[in-house]
Write a structure and sequence with these properties.
It comes from Inconstantimicrobium mannanitabidum. This is DNA topoisomerase 3. The protein starts with a strand and ends with a strand. The radius of gyration is 30 Å and the shape is globular. Helix 6 (154-182) runs antiparallel to helix 20 (558-572) and helix 10 crosses helix 14 (381-398). 38% of the residues lie in helices and 20% in strands. By secondary structure, the protein is of the alpha+beta class. The strands form six sheets. The chain has a seven-stranded mixed beta sheet with strand order 2-3-4-1-8-9-10. A seven-stranded antiparallel beta sheet has the order 16-13-14-15-12-11-17, covered by helices on one side. Strands 20-21-22-23-24-25-26 form a seven-stranded antiparallel beta sheet. It has five domains: 3-146, Rossmann fold, CATH 3.40.50; 164-207 and 480-598, Topoisomerase I, domain 2; 213-269 and 402-473, Topoisomerase I, domain 3 (Distorted Sandwich); 284-397, Topoisomerase I, domain 4, CATH 1.10.290; 608-730, no CATH class. It has 24 helices and 27 strands.
Length: 733
């Protein structure tokens, strides 16, 4: 009997699909049933071949061999996961396997994962596609009842191949050119370079910023205060003399109420979450990195099955989802969400354009709860945090608007205009699902604070009890944190100087990268040591600042990569020819390499240590990663690296700051970074004491802690150039 081979993206998803499809014979690399065989990739099993596969001359990194422009791009089986590839190959070639069902992630990269495996094997068996937005049993069953023909996704596959080939052709050529030219580990790319350029430019803006004094005037009267306003409706002035003269003019004077305006206002809920907006809020509220939020979302989607597909750029749902809203509300109607969910279920759900719009949903709709009831006890603290954000936003959009009465008062004090405003809540509406107001309502766009106002009428007299001159200073632009950097990547036209046409293009194309790749780009910049953290702020390192000077101008522009993403989107819709895109990329890479070769710039290591590399004897560089400090050999061919200190989650027993782990092997010690604390302890004795502690730390706590420490150690040694440079020989030029 013929069977369908189902290819999932990872083992956990494969197991879920197998359970629903009643496949129960587990063969380790696949699970077999009567109608289906379910297997899985481990991310990408196949990738574009390394340069040296095309020619021996590429084994040595040299400017003379650039640009590298192979005629036809070849595929290679990735060594780390080759065992699983050959298992899938056997399955694809089995006679009883009649067709293939692609069940990898429903997006551009997911399509590439499966298609490259099929192409490398050379299978010509018919393909169908599972395209679902949640991992619940119901969604999987419905998806298998509505499988799409593989041909419907041919253009998506072409776009994915174009993206991969463009990144190879441009990224590898420019990275090799920079690395060889300046004898330093320098990486560049179509998304990472403009992102780094924005961070460097922001630092330059802060450095060159000169603060200016400005003044505001507050008049106090019985029960409330008023702010001075000029004829242009501004509440401040840079003119100190003018400000002082107004203070003298109104001091001790009587004023008159010129107008009292009351208006009924409605404020609607913010739109549903897409991934970037969720990453922004999670960073602002909980301090989570973009990568961390995506990882948490992936668990809530894949493992717990209680939220829909995370990698979405839409903040709307499609019309066909509306009928499922009651079921989703019933699923979340527990605990703190019960009251709001029940209220919505009692009324009529009105699918209005604020959240239902098919034209604003491409591959996936906004992130919302699934129809599966959550078991909150099974969620970690960080999973609860992300789940809570999504559920409250979903409830908010279905609840009535927040309604209030806005009161604006205008007074005349000796010929000068002063204003005040107040707010009286009529109905909390959607805001009732939040413990406190979700926005900072204290100061609105006009800078006026809402306050409790007494009953006043036009013509009433008021006595000025005091007048205050407030001296303030203009502030430099803030440094990026991960949340605001995501905003800048999404809308770079707001952060870089471009003309109107360019700004329009950037706005239409969705900015730098995609919702699925932005977190990885930020991580890559950290791991390449071109940016580092100062508290929550992101700052460029000396290496980052120099790299941006060395990278060709075209590659630093956000406009270029936005145009690329737009072209890739057109290719996926069949509106643009893939061959033309790749041809343009080849021409572009040739021009970039030429620009690097002709440059007279220099690169200088200013983070050199006094310690020599134990392998090659050259002086090592001190670099600061996300998880601590390490020394790396300056020689790109050597690649030796070692940890200096690592940030940990262990707390100092004296001052409770997070400890640093310093040294190597048995000589490792925990040190408190607090300058006013002298705590130090050998790691072996500290860990032993931690394990034997009879306080609240359970055995599981200790195991989790040790796992986290191990992971941090691995991340610390995750030099992005280690794999790239391993085993390569360099010309001495």
């Amino acid at each position: 009997m013929g069977r369908s081979l189902v290819i999932a993206e990872k083992p956990s998803v494969g197991r879920d699909l197998a359970k629903v499809l009643k496949c129960n014979v587990n063969k380790n690399s696949y699970i077999e049933g009567n109608k289906y065989i379910v297997t899985w990739a481990l991310g990408h099993l196949v990738g574009l071949a390394d340069p040296e596969v095309y020619s021996d001359k590429y084994k040595n990194w040299s400017l003379e061999t650039l640009p590298m422009l192979p005629g036809n791009m070849k595929l290679m089986v990735l060594p780390k996961t080759s065992k699983q590839f050959y298992e899938i190959k056997k399955l694809l070639n089995r006679e009883d396997v009649t067709d293939i069902i692609i069940a990898t992630d429903a997006g551009r990269e997911g399509e590439l994962v499966a298609r490259w495996i099929i192409e490398k094997v050379g299978s010509k068996k018919p393909i169908r596609r599972l395209w679902i937005s949640s991992q619940t049993d119901k969604a999987i069953n419905d998806g298998f009842k509505n499988l799409k023909p593989g041909k419907a996704y041919e253009n998506l596959y072409k776009a994915a191949v174009c993206r991969a080939e463009a990144d190879w052709i441009v990224g590898l050529n420019v990275t090799r050119a920079l690395t060889c030219k300046y004898n330093a580990q320098l990486s560049a790319g179509r998304v990472q370079s403009p992102t780094l350029a924005m961070i460097v430019q922001r630092e330059e803006d802060i450095k060159n910023f000169k603060p200016k004094d400005y003044y505001t005037i507050t008049a106090k009267t019985k029960g409330f205060s008023l702010q001075w306003m000029n004829k242009d409706n501004n509440h401040s002035t840079f003119d100190e003399k003018l400000a002082n003269s107004i203070v003298e003019k109104v001091k001790g004077r009587e004023g008159e109420i010129v107008s009292v305006t009351e208006s009924n206002k409605k404020k609607y809920s913010p739109a549903l979450y897409d991934l970037t907006e969720l990453q922004r809020d999670a960073n602002r509220i909980f301090g989570y990195s973009a990568k961390q939020t995506l990882s948490i979302m992936q668990r809530l989607y894949e493992n717990h099955k209680i939220l829909t597909y995370p990698r979405t750029d839409s903040r709307y749902i499609s019309q066909d989802i509306v009928a499922t809203i009651p079921e989703r509300l019933n699923a979340i109607a527990t605990g703190v969400y019960r009251s709001a969910a029940s209220e919505i279920l009692k009324g009529k759900i009105i699918a209005n354009k604020s959240f239902v719009d098919d034209s604003k949903v491409s591959d996936h709709h906004a992130i919302i709860p699934t129809e599966q009831r959550p078991n909150i006890l099974n969620l970690s603290q960080e999973e609860k945090h992300i789940y809570d954000l999504v559920v409250k936003r979903f409830l908010s959009i279905l609840l009535p608007p927040f309604e209030y009465i806005q009161t604006n008062i205008v007074a005349n004090i000796n010929g000068e205009t002063f204003v005040a405003k107040g707010k009286v809540t009529k109905s909390k509406g959607w805001k009732k699902v939040y413990d406190k107001d979700v926005e900072e309502d204290a100061a609105s766009e006009d800078g006026l604070r809402d306050q409790e106002l007494p009953a006043l009428n036009k013509g009433d007299k008021i006595s000025v009890t005091s007048v205050q001159l407030n001296k303030l200073q203009t502030k430099a632009p803030a440094r990026f944190n991960e949340g605001t950097l995501l905003s800048a990547m999404e809308n770079p036209q707001k952060y870089v100087k471009v003309d109107k046409d360019a700004a329009k293009t950037l706005g239409e194309t969705g900015g730098l990268g995609t919702v699925a790749t932005r977190a990885d780009i930020i991580e890559k910049l950290f791991n390449s040591f071109v940016i580092e953290k100062s508290g929550k702020d992101i700052v460029p390192t000396s290496k980052g600042k120099q790299l941006i000077e060395l990278v060709p101008n075209e590659l630093k522009s956000p406009l270029l990569t936005a145009k690329w993403e737009s072209a890739l989107e057109d290719i996926s819709k069949g509106k643009q020819d893939a061959h033309n895109f790749v041809r343009d990329m080849r021409n572009y890479a040739t021009a970039l390499v030429a620009a690097v070769k002709m440059s007279n710039d220099k690169f200088r290591h200013d983070n050199m240590t006094g310690k020599k590399c134990p392998v090659c004897g050259k002086y090592m560089l001190e670099v600061k990663g996300k998880n601590g400090i390490m020394n790396v050999c300056q020689d790109r061919a050597c690649g030796h690296r070692e940890s200096v200190s690592r940030n940990t989650n262990a707390r100092c027993p004296e001052c409770h700051k997070k400890l640093e782990l310093r040294g190597q092997g048995e000589g490792q010690i925990y040190v408190c970074p607090n300058v006013n604390c002298s705590f130090k302890e050998k790691a072996s004795s500290f860990n032993k004491r931690f394990k034997n502690n009879d306080s609240k730390n359970t055995k599981r706590d200790v195991q989790n802690y040790m796992k986290k420490m191990k992971k941090e150690a691995e991340e610390m040694n995750d030099n992005p150039f280690a794999e790239l440079l391993s085993g390569l020989k360099f010309d001495d030029k």
